[in-house]
Design goal:
This protein has 11 helices and 10 strands. With 283 residues, it is α/β, with parallel strands linked by helices. It has 2 domains: 72 residues, Orthogonal Bundle (Chemotaxis Receptor Methyltransferase Cher, domain 1); 190 residues, Rossmann fold (3-Layer(aba) Sandwich), CATH 3.40.50.150. It starts with 13 loop residues before the first helix and ends with a helix.
């Protein structure tokens, strides 16, 4: 086969891009606008080369084969990998600490990081809960989920570059993280007692049947921005059965549930609780 190169959006036809838009939407609910064409090409071009395929049309046909479920997952991994960091939007972790101190002393406090990416959100949550509730058996637990198996594998390891840990408060960094030496120099490992409290698992938010139990807090931050209105409504409706009666759903500061769900009401900006609590006259 002759050598070939793929550059920019010109390497994918409008028809091919439309095919990928539909495929990615059907799998993950993500709506890719025309502005994302360069992103799609940039993230998938190396995969085409690795498979020895000449065009995105050939790759789409390859993905369409029934036996290529793993390749479809690989494509999702490449498209959906997003940047995150520890203690992103710190006001949310202040609220988490308040709620845990108020409600978590009875035991069984549970948090779902519903788009956990490479794990920084889940481990930030673990540091807050360990610092607030301690490490007593059964006092709290965290479930971290994502549609990308690649980032879940990284999250499970809990190993990060020191450059990615600037947001961790110094006291928590010292208490719950280990600094690498020798061949691990420049790296940070989340302490084992925290890693053991976080269960990472695959979950497609369009079909979240595998997630166990009910949660006091569900983080769904910086996710809705990738969905159209109908998909946003479906995702929120899918998460509601997992939220405790006095639980809270937290979204990103660039997001809103206005027009998406009447079952939740804002208690604070980006922090929502079940609307029935207001209807029942509760504070």
């Amino acid at each position: 086969m002759e050598d070939f190169l793929l550059y920019g959006e010109d390497s994918i036809s409008s028809r091919e891009f439309s095919q990928f838009q539909k495929l990615i939407f059907d799998i993950a609910g993500i709506s890719l606008s025309e502005a994302k064409k360069v992103l799609l090409v940039g993230r998938l071009a190396k995969r085409l080369r690795a498979l020895g395929l000449r065009s995105f049309g050939e790759y789409f046909q390859h993905l369409s084969q029934e036996a290529q479920a793993q390749e479809r997952q690989t494509m999702v991994d490449l498209i959906t990998t997003n940047e995150t960091y520890f203690f992103r939007e710190p006001q949310h972790f202040d609220f988490l600490r308040e709620k845990a101190a108020r409600c978590g002393r009875q035991g069984g406090f549970r948090v779902w990081s519903a788009a956990s990416s490479s794990g920084e959100e889940a481990y930030s949550t673990a540091m807050v809960l360990a610092d607030t509730l301690g490490l007593g058996q059964g006092s709290w637990e965290i479930v971290g989920t994502d549609i990308s198996t690649k980032v879940l594998s990284a999250a499970h390891r809990g190993l990060y570059s020191l450059e990615r840990t600037n947001g961790i408060p110094p006291a928590l960094l010292k208490k719950y993280c280990l600094k690498g030496i020798l061949d691990q120099q420049g790296m940070l490992l989340v302490a084992r007692q925290l890693r053991e409290r976080v269960q990472f698992m695959y979950c497609n938010l369009l079909q979240p049947q595998r997630v166990p139990g009910l949660f006091d807090v569900i983080f769904l931050r910086n996710v809705l921005i990738y969905f159209n209105q109908e998909t946003k409504q479906k995702v929120i409706a899918n998460l509601l059965p997992y939220l405790k009666r006095d639980g809270h759903l937290i979204i990103g500061h660039s997001e809103s549930l206005h027009g998406i769900s009447s079952a939740l009401v804002a208690e604070r900006p980006t922090i929502y609780r079940p609307a029935y609590r207001v209807q029942a006259g509760q504070p």
